[in-house]
Design a protein that fits this description.
This protein is α/β, with parallel strands linked by helices. Helix content is about 40%, strand content about 20%.
Length: about 210
């Protein structure tokens, strides 16, 4: 049995417990989730998962490579070979979460309704998208050297356009404070980024 088959066999053996995850006590729940991550790491180190809340159609289990394009093929392989199980939906990559979001990362909160973007040229990779992201601030300064801040902005973009497009389209990103008149400075509302990305992909593929 190869690593892929081993993972799915373990999942099939434990799928009923995983469906009823919320009914377990905290210790059992954490042990089961840790075991799932362990099995996933055995299949491919670097992958992670996001377990959705139960719905009338069951649970959604999303597999992610955390933006590492070198591992994308393993995510696709995993989902393409998923078993057909009642009460389960399997998805490759973090999906867009809509617009008008508030994304929390570390000590930062990013409100997409108050953020803007501007397209930049990627000279070395013209098929990629460069973005200047304007983030509100009280003193016209950003903690640009704070890695958590930069990662938080990226996570916000990922929530808007999804993991796959974020990793395969964005070649360059920089952050600036929101200017006094963002529209006059050539910025667009960040909540318009999903539509812009679809336009960019269509134009690139012409």
């Amino acid at each position: 049995m190869n690593k892929l088959e081993t993972f799915w066999q373990w999942f099939v053996d434990h799928n009923e417990q995983l469906v009823m995850l919320n009914d377990l006590d905290e210790k059992e729940r954490n042990e089961l989730l840790n075991a799932l991550q362990y099995q996933l790491t055995k299949y491919c180190d670097g992958l992670a998962f996001d377990m959705g809340e139960p719905t009338a159609n069951g649970r959604m289990l999303t597999f992610t490579a955390e933006g590492d394009t070198d591992l994308f093929r393993y995510v696709v392989e995993l989902v393409d070979n998923a078993p057909d199980l009642d009460w389960w939906q399997f998805t490759a990559f973090k999906q867009p979460m809509g617009t008008e979001l508030k994304v929390r990362f570390d000590k930062y909160v990013f409100d997409t309704r108050k953020m803007y973007f501007q397209q930049l040229e990627c000279e070395e990779e013209p098929e990629m998208l460069g973005l200047r992201i304007a983030v509100p601030t009280t003193d016209h300064r950003l903690p640009a050297t704070d890695e958590d801040f930069q990662v938080g902005v990226y996570v916000t973009l990922e929530a808007l356009i999804g993991e796959f497009d974020c990793a395969t389209l964005i070649g360059y990103m920089e952050t600036v404070p929101v200017p006094d008149e963002p529209f006059k400075s050539g910025f667009q509302p960040l909540d318009d980024l999903p539509k812009f990305v679809e336009w960019f992909k269509a134009k690139r593929d012409e």
